[in-house]
Amino acid sequence: MSDVVVQLTELRKSFGANEVLRGINLEVKRGEVVCIIGPSGSGKSTLLRCVNMLETPTSGTVAVGGIELTDPDCDLDAARTSLGMVFQQFNLFPHMTAMENVTVALRKVLKRSRSEAELIAGEQLARVGLSEKALSYPAQLSGGQQQRVAIARALAMGPSVMLFDEATSALDPELVGDVLAVMRSLAEEGMTMLVVTHEMGFARNVADRVIFMDEGVIMEQGKPADVLGNPSVDRTKKFLASVLGTH
Fold first, then answer.
1. Residue 78 burial (CB < 10 Å; 0-12/13-18/19+)?
2. Residue 145 to residues 60, 132, 137, 198, 207, Cα–Cα distance (Å)
3. Using CB atoms within 10 A as the burial measure, which of 59, 108, 123, 236 is most buried?
4. Residue 192 to residue 240: CA distance in whole angstroms
5. Residue 246 pLDDT grade (very low, low, confident, very high; cuts 50, 70, 90)
6. pTM (two decimals)
7. Digit-coded pLDDT (tens) for 50-104
8. How far is the C-alpha of 88 from the C-alpha of 171, rounded, in Å?
9. For residues 245 and 28, what is the distance between their CA atoms, to the nearest angstrom?
């Protein structure tokens, strides 16, 4: 069994005349945590959305777990169950409790019974530290708690890869830590993760590899200490100076 879980080959994505991804080649191995950094508009979120085919690539291929998602004959709904996605916005159903938000896809997509779905949901809410909030509605939860429910919802599907798209950027600064702690514990458990983030501390401490993207291409990648501590590309240096406030 190949240890490459995500493989992108010559991936391109255009919106009209605007080419947002320009020939991305990327392999992510099982258990690897890859953080993607870069300025706004560099194509980071589009890259993640192409991995789970929320955006259809203009050309190139996306394979996850050996299944080519860009193949016209691919059963996307089935393939997508191996991918968990956590967005900047929490996308919870406001009329459902935390427990119901986590069980809905288990029951509708994976056809689990209510009791089985609630058992799985309970385990995942515990995993993100929210057992006591199972019966709370989103409006009764802080942003950080809502985001942790969203993580639990993604984990409940039993994904082999987790995609995080700026998962903390909509949160108040004091709530960011709880979400990053959950992400860190997932990394320690060996979850394969692709993380678009502005949190340089997280990238430095948790990532196995950091990728710097700009203008739709991967400009630089490597170990966090190298890319963040001693970047070889001027564009990376400028970006890091702007986010870290160093000169």
1. exposed
2. 37, 11, 11, 20, 23
3. 236
4. 25
5. low
6. 0.94
7. 999 999 999 999 999 999 999 999 998 888 889 999 998 888 999 999 999 999 9
8. 9
9. 30
